[in-house]
Amino acid sequence: MMFLSSRSARGVVTALATACLLAHAPARAAEPQACPASADGASFVCNVVNVEDLVSLPSTHWLVGSSLHGAGSKTPPLYLFDSKTRKAQEVSAGDVKIARDAKTYADCPGDPDLAKFSSHGLDYVSRGKRGTLYVVNHGGRESIEAFEVDVSSPKPTFTWKGCVVAPDGFWPDAVAALPGGGMVVTSLWDPKDSDRLSKLVSGKPVGALAEWYPKTGWKIIGPAGMSGPNGVVATPDGNSVFVALWSAGKVMRLDRKTGKATTVDVDFRPDNLRWEAGNKSILLGGQTSTVKEAIEDCFAKPLVNCNIPFKIVRLDPRTLQTQPLVDGRIYGNMGAGTGALTVGKDLWVTTFRGDRLAIFEGRAQR
Fold this sequence. Notes:
Layout: H1 15-21, E1 38-39, E2 42-46, E3 54-56, E4 62-65, E5 78-82, E6 87-91, E7 96-98, E8 119-127, E9 130-137, E10 143-150, E11 157-165, E12 172-178, E13 182-187, H2 196-202, E14 208-213, E15 217-221, E16 229-234, E17 240-245, E18 250-255, E19 261-265, E20 269-275, E21 282-287, H3 291-299, E22 310-315, E23 322-329, E24 337-343, E25 346-351, E26 356-360
Parallel strand pairs: 7-11
Antiparallel strand pairs: 1-2, 2-26, 3-4, 4-5, 5-6, 8-9, 9-10, 10-11, 12-13, 13-14, 14-15, 16-17, 17-18, 18-19, 20-21, 21-22, 22-23, 24-25, 25-26
């Protein structure tokens, strides 16, 4: 989850918007904070920048994390995590091969500028020793970039295959793969809407949901009135999608066949969604703050770590009821948590503004 793209300044006139825009002006780098091995019941993977989302590469011990630009931050395109050693390494521009799939991504305007790359939401589709990694990107263009990941070697390799430019009026946040080579993508807001920030703060309708297929392109889906669509996952058959409505404080289940939407309130700002092993339950994370607090006290300031409490819950996809897993607080210096990923018996927790990941041992579904 994030609040402003680097090119979203035009047309914002409120004082709150002005504060947010300062986050993308040249900023004095904030002082780094101590990153201990553990604190407050959490262990940490240190020296990473704004790992907002995280996916696993099945049948391996590797994880891939995004790296979202923030105030004064410079980030690599992606991170690769070894879950055995709990160490991270950057996936730099030089580590990515280019081999465009012009048939699938016929409308992609060209290769990505990996020097500007700002990765956000992720999803991964495994196909044995190779799979497709979908990456929401804000660097150079608003798009979803597709990478082939080869896990046949001791260390995964990345090949860029193409892109899908976001629809007009979209600021993409999260992506979920659909059967048949499609994807569903959330948009937190319309970057050309000068009232977008005030709508988020008040929980009014803002943002959108769309699906894409290679042959048919983009199609807007979902009910009217959604406020701040954020994280998204799809069932393996693609019949249902689950969407975190961040500013509304709700989670929505959408039947793609009938269009029926069911929502449930949660007591925090729901951010990222991720299936647990076996696709029987969903991990949901987010911030226990107001929209205004998350923006003014966190994103609009050049902070290394944000003083915004977060929580993680387990969501039952049938009843939409939740079970608490990680209490709503700050752990060590880590705040602004966005979501969680099951890694063995542990939960790895991400953040939109931080220099670390948190690991909560023994809290995954067994």
